[in-house]
């Protein structure tokens, strides 16, 4: 039975309600806690909240308070401690002491040797980009209408789940308008650079991710020609962003274009370009307010949901983001949907950010750090247990018919697996330099890192090449 919708505008009252909204609507007894026992018993704890009202006398009271879990309270305490340490000029990290008695836990200093080495290796491989090939609109290789239609139809079916940056039906209508403009004698050089930046970003992404579907790979020349098109369309997107003055004129379409290019930056060897443009996209999104629900409420529901997904795509792609905010996108239907992949990555990103914030936020002893990593590992295990069947590594419940109906399913499962394994290395590698008092934890951390690394290599060698292109 559908619940009665709550009023859109707060009502006036002299006394703020203490009962939750579901209990008030059903006229049942409420113990006035958040969440109340009635909602917990009915499995509706997430919907338990108090009604927002206007108290007469000009005072406004929000009777709904955030429902924080224990881990969130602990994380908030550490964030406050870090802020207090900074204001007092105290360096938050502890330094190892040579006078620590044997058998007692020493001050903890995270070990970043492994991650620093991986970062240096990544820098050497991924900072080898091609020189710019687009200096004017005449340098852009515009595809034919037929090829453009085919590629974008392919993108809508199999690649847009990588970024969730656009509403595809709306974009295809705009695509038709663009080609009508061209057929009526218009030049693409005179068209809206914001839209064209999104357009060429999509072309570069779909051609790279689905290269074998568009270019025959029987000759080296064919592969080189395809790569030249990818590079040209990538350069065209960057050129059009600059033409749109995206640094000084915030526009949501510029954010969308950068989000789509997220898969293309690294594979073309433009890692430094990624680290420069991705923060710009995040700050622009924050200036436009898509990370705050009060701003999204001003937009139509479909547009607001699109912006939520776009914001979280940016969050997922930035390992160095200081804080995570915003409302989680709406849950997808029970059937397999590409959105379930992003929801899983969102939960993983929140776990990673919380771990990093707590690790940096004050003085830790080694035994406490071991407990923190153990709790984080438990959260990852819980996340894996809650994954839909088609995203789990075993994939036992997925049939060949499912794989045929949902061509993106196998690659999403592969991406989730690589991401969670990589996160496990990031968590346990911080413990590889523990002192003698935590020798067992140090040995286990090293064993986990080695075993996880071997698993990643085995999966990469046994899997198809196109399944690890964008990872």
TrEMBL record:
<dbReference type="GO" id="GO:0006351">
    <property type="term" value="P:DNA-templated transcription"/>
</dbReference>
<dbReference type="GO" id="GO:0003677">
    <property type="term" value="F:DNA binding"/>
</dbReference>
<keyword id="KW-0238">DNA-binding</keyword>
<keyword id="KW-0539">Nucleus</keyword>
<keyword id="KW-0479">Metal-binding</keyword>
<keyword id="KW-0804">Transcription</keyword>
<feature type="domain" description="Zn(2)-C6 fungal-type">
    <location>
        <begin position="19"/>
        <end position="50"/>
    </location>
</feature>
<dbReference type="InterPro" id="IPR036864">
    <property type="entry name" value="Zn2-C6_fun-type_DNA-bd_sf"/>
</dbReference>
<protein>
    <recommendedName>
        <fullName>Zn(2)-C6 fungal-type domain-containing protein</fullName>
    </recommendedName>
</protein>
<keyword id="KW-0805">Transcription regulation</keyword>
<dbReference type="Pfam" id="PF00172">
    <property type="entry name" value="Zn_clus"/>
</dbReference>
<dbReference type="InterPro" id="IPR007219">
    <property type="entry name" value="XnlR_reg_dom"/>
</dbReference>
<dbReference type="InterPro" id="IPR050613">
    <property type="entry name" value="Sec_Metabolite_Reg"/>
</dbReference>
<dbReference type="GO" id="GO:0008270">
    <property type="term" value="F:zinc ion binding"/>
</dbReference>
<dbReference type="InterPro" id="IPR001138">
    <property type="entry name" value="Zn2Cys6_DnaBD"/>
</dbReference>
<dbReference type="GO" id="GO:0005634">
    <property type="term" value="C:nucleus"/>
</dbReference>
<dbReference type="Pfam" id="PF04082">
    <property type="entry name" value="Fungal_trans"/>
</dbReference>
<dbReference type="GO" id="GO:0000981">
    <property type="term" value="F:DNA-binding transcription factor activity, RNA polymerase II-specific"/>
</dbReference>
């Amino acid at each position: 039975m559908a619940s009665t919708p709550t009023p859109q505008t707060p009502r006036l009252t002299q006394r703020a309600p203490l009962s939750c909204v579901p209990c008030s609507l059903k006229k049942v007894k409420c113990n006035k806690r958040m969440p109340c026992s009635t909602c917990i018993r009915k499995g509706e704890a997430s919907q338990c909240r108090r009604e927002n009202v206007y108290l007469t006398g000009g005072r406004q009271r929000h009777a709904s308070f955030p429902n924080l879990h224990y881990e969130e309270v602990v994380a908030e305490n550490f964030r406050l401690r870090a802020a207090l340490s900074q204001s007092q000029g105290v360096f938050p990290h502890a330094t190892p002491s040579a006078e620590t008695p044997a058998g007692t836990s020493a001050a903890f200093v995270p070990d970043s040797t492994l991650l620093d080495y991986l970062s240096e290796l990544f820098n050497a491989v991924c900072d080898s980009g091609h020189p710019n090939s687009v200096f004017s609109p005449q340098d852009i290789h515009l595809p034919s209408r037929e090829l453009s239609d085919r590629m974008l139809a392919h993108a809508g079916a199999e690649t847009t789940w990588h970024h969730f940056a656009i509403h595809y039906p709306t974009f295809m209508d705009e695509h038709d308008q663009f080609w009508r403009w061209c057929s009526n004698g218009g030049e693409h050089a005179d068209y809206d650079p914001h839209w064209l930046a999104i357009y060429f970003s999509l072309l570069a992404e779909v051609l790279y991710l689905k290269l074998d579907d568009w270019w025959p790979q029987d000759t080296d020349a064919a592969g080189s020609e395809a790569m030249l098109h990818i590079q040209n369309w990538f350069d065209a997107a960057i050129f059009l962003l600059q033409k749109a003055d995206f640094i000084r004129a915030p526009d949501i379409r510029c954010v969308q274009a950068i989000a789509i290019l997220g898969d293309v930056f690294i594979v073309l060897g433009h890692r430094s370009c990624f680290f420069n443009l991705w923060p710009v996209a995040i700050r622009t999104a924050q200036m436009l307010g898509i990370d705050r629900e009060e701003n999204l409420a001003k937009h139509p529901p479909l547009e607001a949901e699109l912006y939520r997904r776009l914001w979280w795509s940016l969050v997922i792609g930035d390992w160095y983001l200081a804080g995570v905010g915003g409302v989680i996108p709406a849950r997808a239907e029970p059937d397999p949907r590409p959105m379930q992949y992003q929801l899983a990555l969102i939960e993983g990103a929140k776990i990673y950010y919380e771990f990093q914030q707590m690790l940096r936020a004050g003085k830790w002893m080694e035994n406490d750090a071991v407990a923190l990593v153990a709790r984080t590992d438990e959260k990852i295990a819980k996340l894996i247990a809650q994954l839909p069947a088609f995203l789990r590594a075993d994939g036992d419940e997925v049939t060949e018919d499912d794989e045929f109906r949902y061509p993106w399913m196998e690659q999403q499962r592969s991406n989730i697996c690589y991401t969670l394994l990589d996160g496990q290395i990031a968590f346990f590698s911080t413990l590889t330099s523990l002192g003698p008092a935590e020798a067992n934890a140090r040995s286990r951390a090293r064993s986990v890192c080695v075993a996880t690394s071997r698993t990643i290599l085995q999966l990469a060698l046994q899997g198809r090449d196109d399944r690890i292109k964008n990872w």
